[in-house]
Amino acid sequence: MNKIKTTFSKNVAIPGLVVILFVSIFCGLFPTKAAQILNDIKGYFFENLSWVYVIMVTLFIIFLIIVAMSKLGNIRLGADNSKPKYSFFSWIAMLFAAGMGIGLMYFGVAETISHYANPAVADTVQRAKEAQLYTFFHWGIHAWAIYAVMGLILAYFAYRYNLPLAIRSGLYPLLKDKINGPIGNIVDVFALCSTFFGIATTLGFGVVQLNAGLVSIGIVKESNFLFQAIIVIVVMMIAVGSTLSGLDKGVKRLSELNLTLAFLLMIFVLIMGPTIYILSTFSEGIGYYISNLSKLTFNTFAYEQEGVNWFSNWTILYWAWWISWAPFVGLFIARISKGRTIREYIVAVLLVPSLFNFMWMTVFGSSAVWFDKFSVSGALSRLSDNPDILLFEFFNQFPLSSVLSFLAILMIAVFFVTSADSGILVMNCIASDAKKQIPKWQNIFWGVLLIILSLALLRSGGLASLQTMTLISSLLFGLIMLVLCFCLWKGLRLDYLFHSTNPPYGSESWTGKNWKQRLNRMFSFSEKKDVRYFINNIVKTAFEDIQKELESKGIHADIQDGKRKNYSLELVIRHDLIRNFKYGVAAQKQNLADYFINEENTPDFDNDTTYVPVTYFTDGRSGNNIQYMTKEEIIVDVLKEYERFITLISDDKNELITVEF
C-alpha cells in the first residue's frame, strides 16, 4: 500500500494540530469555565497593559514611515530585476478581501452607530463626529500598519534571500541557522494556531450574521444551528474548491468580484442615501482624522477614567485582534507582493485600503446616523447591541431593500470564502515549511477540520472563549513582531550597503586601441542572430579562457545556458556555503524610437527593433551593454565583477546576504 504523500513538517504541523485540538476541545467541553478564566486574563491584560498595545502599534507605524521615506524604500521584494506577478487592482483586491472584507460588512453600520449611541465619554457634544472619528481610527492606517509590517518582513526575507516563506525566517539576522531549531518551530506553531483560531472564530461568529440576513429576506424562517451548520459547510466547500483552483484563479477572481460588488453597493447607498450629508461628513471626517491622528495614536484615556472601559473594549480589542490576525494576513500579503519595491508596498498597503475603508464607513455609518436622527427616531441606535441584524435594518430605509440585503448576503458569503481559502493556503504554507508543491488533500484536510471544530464550538458556546484566548496571545506576538522589525531593519541596512558598494579598485574595460571598431558597432543595430553569434564566439571564448585559468588554480567554473528569453550564456562558480558567482550575458530586445528611425543623420536599418548583449549577475542586478567590447575587455569586466564578489563575501558583516540557503 502506497504511503500518503504529504509536505507537512513534523516539527510544525504535529505540535500545531495538538494545540489546536486541545484548545478547541477544552473550550468546547468547558465553555463556561474557559470563558471565566480567559476573560479574567484578558481583563487584566487590557486594564494594566493597554499602554503596551498602544506603543507597539505606534512603533509599527513609525518604522514603516522611516523605511518608506529612506533610500531603503527603493529595495525590491525579490531580485532587482523582478516584476510584480499581479496587476495593481488584483493585488489590492486580494489583500483587501483577506484582511478586512468581512469586517466591513459586519461593522460598516454597526460600529458608527454603536459609538454614536454609546460614546467613549458620555458628555460629548459631537457624538456623530466622534463616532466617525473612532471608526476611522480603528479601521485605518493603524490596522493596516500591523498587517503591512508582518507582510513586509515575510516577503523581504523570502523573496530577497530565498529563505522559507515563514515567520521564523525574519529572525535570521539574530538566530542565524538556529531558526531551524526549537525557537523557529515554536514561532511557526504559534502562527499556525493563531491563523486557525482566527479563521474558526470568524467563520463561527460571521455565520450568525449570514443566518440573520437570510431570515431578513425570508429565505429561512429563523436563526438556528441547523441553518448555521449548512451555511458553514457550503462556504467551506466553496473555499476548498477555490484553493484547489490555485491562488491565480480561485482567490484572485473571488477577490476581484467582491471588490467590484462592494463598489457597486457603496455607490448605490451613496446615491440613494443622504448624498450631500455623506460627502460632507467624508471630507470633514478625513480632516478631523488627520488633525487628531497624533492624539488618537498615543491616547490611553489616563485622564478620562470614565472612558477606560470603552477604550479597552474597542481600541485595545481591535489592536489585539489585528495583531492576532497578522500571521495569517501578513503571510498572504507577502505571497502576492513579490516584485514590488518596499516603498510601493508600504504606501499602497497603508493608504489604499485605509481610504476605501474611510469611504465605506462614511457611506454606511454616516447614512445610518442620518437616518437614526432624522428618519427613524433612534430605531437604529436601539439596535446597537444587536449588530447581526443592524445592516439589514439599515437597508430597509432604501428602495429595493430585499435586493440590497441579498447582495450583502452574497458579499458576506464571498468574503467568508476568500478569508477561508486564503487562510487554508496560508496554513498549508506554514505547516509545510513554505514548500510549493502541496498535495490537494491537505487543502481538504484544513477545510474539514475548520468545519468540524467551528461547528462544535458554535454548538457548545465555546467560540467566545477561543476568541478571547486569541486576543490574549496577541500581546506576546506583538512583542515578537517588534523583534522582527529590528531584524528587518538590520537586514535592510546590510542590503543597501551591499548593493551600493563599489569595487575598491579595478581596471577600466575600455581603451583607445579599438576606437574605430567601437564606433562602427555603435551604429550597427543587430538582429538576434548577430547577438547569438557575438555570445557564442566572443563571450564564450572569453569565458573559456577564464575557466581554463581558474581550473589551473583549483577552482571549478561552469559555462552554461542561462535559460533566459531570446538567448543567454553564463559563467558560474559554484559554492557550498556561500552564494554562487554568476556572470551572464543575455540577448536583450530593444525598441528603437520613431524619432530616431526618422532622423536622416543616422545609419539605415531594416526594422524598429534591435538586440544587444547585456550582462546580469547573481543578485539580480542588470549590467551594461557589452557589444563594443573585445574578448580581452570582457575578461577584464568579468574579473572586475569577481573582484567585487570576493571583496563582499569575505566580509563577515555580509553573512546574511552572501550565505546560500
TrEMBL record:
Its main location: membrane. Keywords: Cell membrane, Membrane, Transmembrane, Transmembrane helix, Transport. It holds the Pfam family BCCT. InterPro entries: BCCT_CS, BCCT_transptr. Coiled coil: none annotated. It is a multi-pass membrane protein. It is found in: Cell membrane. Belongs to the BCCT transporter (TC 2.A.15) family. This is BCCT family transporter.
